[in-house]
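Example 3.2
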Amino acid sequence: KLVFEQINSFWQKNQSQGMHTVLYAYSLGKAQRLIAGINHHLGPVAVHTAVDKMNQIYVEAGRLPYQPPVCTKQEIAGWDQPGLIIAPPAVIGSSWLKKLGAINEAYISGWMLSKGQSRRRNMRGFVLSDHADWTGLNFAVQQSKPKQVWTMHGYTDIYARYLNENHVQAKS
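Structure, written as tokens:
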């Protein structure tokens, strides 16, 4: 809750200075967590098209409110106040950003706990992780009753072995 209060305050400060807020977050996981947690009453919210593609299934399932993708200066010009845009880190320093006009950027990551990450990014950072813990992973597997689980990140061999030992077909 505290991190979302900090993000909302950052956005409001940028608005008072006539700037849009751009939050860099991975398109799957972190972006959806941001959309679910920010205060949508503060102003317009939009997403980069890469985030929009990932959001579609969540919107269709009723799990997230629709956020329009933003691509042009004309779209932003229609806003009545500076907004918040969620974009993948790949667009940092890109020509796409120039379309947005005056912006203030922040990076969203669990890695922002590291002072080295903050310095390397050379921008404001907010600590937010979208990783599940052991209990959360096992709960998700139990609830979804998958035919097979493919482990893809982290301790994949260990988790696949654990699942197989517990009668869930898994491979890393």
